[in-house]
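Everyone, describe these structure tokens:
***
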Amino acid sequence: MEGSDDISASSPSSSSSPQSAVVLSPCAACKILRRRCVEKCVLAPYFPPHDPLKFSTAHRVFGASNIIKFLQQEVPEGQREDAVSSMVYEANARLREPVYGCAGAIWQLQKQVNDLHQQLAKAQAQLLNMQSQNANLMAIICMDMSSQNYHQHNLATYIIGSTTTSFSDDDDLGFSSEQPLWN
């Protein structure tokens, strides 16, 4: 069967790892490179047939042989998926910004973080200023209220004191303090 050359499958015994997925068509890397996708294709678990742009992007920046060498010789099997994700991210960054790549994106993010820190510091200073103004206003209100209470107390004392003294000192009415008012 000629069509079976393009079908590769790995053992279905361990279905949790990316390499154990059954590949029904050549991986995206083998399709783009126009080669037969073998059963133990290093690229198949990381470049699925339904996402050819992923490999195409990485291939344009790093080259297929460099990707294969890197995955086989430099990266342990448990970390290969993360390594491929990083390569694809770096390749996309290089295509967007050929000079700085990821470093440019990192610089932009750091600039945003610094700007946000400055905005936060300004907002915190404004908040402290508002809290200080609020505390001063509350102190003035409390002082004014206590002053009003003091004046009201003094006025009441004055009024009470003047009425008692006016009744006791008022002999024009013919009352004396020794005589009861009612008989």
In short: DSSP finds five helices and no strands in the chain. The two ends are 138 Å apart (CA to CA).
